[in-house]
């Protein structure tokens, strides 16, 4: 099958450091190539892939100091996609909004996976207008805030073979991802302190969250029991998670998926997660981690970690969250598109 994958331009594919959507686009693209499909990736020019790469910017836009406005770059990418659209059996978009008018021209050959939060008020009138466009969600919880739209499937994320699981011998709790108010790193610190365990925080601080980090999080760091080590790359992520006793995921927002939870699972590391968004869909309570409702419950869950079977955590990953399974799910969707079993339809 001839497949186009259209990625965001803010980060390369795969990202050097933080970038969940770009990481999933990479995993999916490489899995499809491995399965013998002719895949073309529209992405930043510094991307790394076994697919045919169409460079739509010189490098990831986040890294280019000359970039002030990303919209012209995204418009140019969509024009490149439009010019080559007849070369593909299926076009798969991962860029959320800006392609929607083009999708009406492409008809039933195009599908969009929405990767972000959908509870923002600006999105309501937008998706009411484009309620005919075929959409894929990354969890059922992600769909909750949306008006009626043309959902055709939910596909959970998957990871390529992560190698052998970690031993959890680092003696610390882990916080991994992004420092922001909705991720609640302050809760992670409180949980660690109350449970008497060290916490290591490997996370990105965006410009918009710099003040939050400096005023709320940084004063709580002590460089010993509570440490912040900054962003880590993909290889470092898995080692970091594999050595942790548990991942803390004390979120306070409607998480669309939470890639870090399955990254921890791939290393046999259980996750202690708050019951928000996709968490109940991803974590099997008592098997791959613990789902809790508050800090007290999280502290109690830390005390139950010695009874967790890390091999069972990894088995649940192998059963549910591999890249091969993810690619298979998407191939089912692509096949339905080619057979005309999925078509744009207006949703009242």
TrEMBL record:
Organism ancestry: Bacteria, Pseudomonadati, Pseudomonadota, Alphaproteobacteria, Rhodospirillales
Protein name: Glycosyltransferase family 4 protein
Domain Glycosyl transferase family: 171-295
Source domain of life: Bacteria
Species, as recorded: Rhodocista pekingensis
Residue ranges of every copy of the Glycosyltransferase subfamily 4-like N-terminal domain listed in the record: 18-121
InterPro entries per record: Glyco_trans_1, Glyco_trans_4-like_N
């Amino acid at each position: 099958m001839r497949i186009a994958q259209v990625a965001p331009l803010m980060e390369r594919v795969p990202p050097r450091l933080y970038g969940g959507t770009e990481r999933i686009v990479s995993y999916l693209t490489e899995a499809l190539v491995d399965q013998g499909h002719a895949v073309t990736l529209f992405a930043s020019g510094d991307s790394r892939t076994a697919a045919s790469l169409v460079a739509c910017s010189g490098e990831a836009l986040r890294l280019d100091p000359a970039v002030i406005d990303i919209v012209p770059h995204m418009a140019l990418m969509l024009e490149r996609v439009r010019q080559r659209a007849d070369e593909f059996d299926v076009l798969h978009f991962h860029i959320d909004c800006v392609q929607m008018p083009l999708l009406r021209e492409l008809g039933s050959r195009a599908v969009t996976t929405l990767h972000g939060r959908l509870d923002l008020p600006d999105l309501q009138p937008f998706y009411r207008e484009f309620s005919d466009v075929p959409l894929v969600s990354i969890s059922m919880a992600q769909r909750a805030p949306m008006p009626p739209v043309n959902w055709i499937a939910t596909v959970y994320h998957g990871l390529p073979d992560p190698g052998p699981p970690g031993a959890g011998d680092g003696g610390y709790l882990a916080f991994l991802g992004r420092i922001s108010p909705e991720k609640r790193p302050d809760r992670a610190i409180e949980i660690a302190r109350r449970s008497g365990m060290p916490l290591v925080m490997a996370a990105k601080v965006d410009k918009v969250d710099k003040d939050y980090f400096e005023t709320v999080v940084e004063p709580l760091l002590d460089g010993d029991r509570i440490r912040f080590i900054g962003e880590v790359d993909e290889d470092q992520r898995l080692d970091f998670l594999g050595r942790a006793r548990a991942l803390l995921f004390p979120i306070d927002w409607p998480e669309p998926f939470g890639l870090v939870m399955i990254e921890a699972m791939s290393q046999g590391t259980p996750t202690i997660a708050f019951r928000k968004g996709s968490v109940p869909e991803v974590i099997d309570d008592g098997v791959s981690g613990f789902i809790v409702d508050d800090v007290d419950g999280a502290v109690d869950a830390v005390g139950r970690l010695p009874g967790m079977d890390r091999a069972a955590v990894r088995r649940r990953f192998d059963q549910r969250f591999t890249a091969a399974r993810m690619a298979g799910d998407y191939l089912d969707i692509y096949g339905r598109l080619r057979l005309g079993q999925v078509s744009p339809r207006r949703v009242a």
